[in-house]
Automatic annotation (TrEMBL):
InterPro entries: DUF1059. It comes from Aliiroseovarius salicola. This is DUF1059 domain-containing protein.
Length: 66
């Protein structure tokens, strides 16, 4: 089994209707996809996320085995 990381946008408060989820091999790659998704789907700029938001999103990243 390989270790990977997963994020489901619907787990984020206020985004319950969003069907997007992603799984990547590294957290860095996952953060990049989360930022891209935020821009394309929610018109959010990840550069505007403050540290509290980043800390909250970090709690939504789950380690998974693939």
């Amino acid at each position: 089994m390989t270790r990977a990381y997963s994020y489901a946008c619907r787990d984020c408060e206020g985004m319950e209707a969003c069907p997007a989820s992603m799984t990547t091999q590294t957290k860095d790659e996952l953060w990049q996809l989360m930022a891209l998704h935020a821009k394309l789907a929610h018109d959010e700029n990840a550069a505007d996320w403050d540290q509290d938001t980043r800390d909250y999103l970090e709690t939504l990243i789950k380690p998974v085995s693939v």
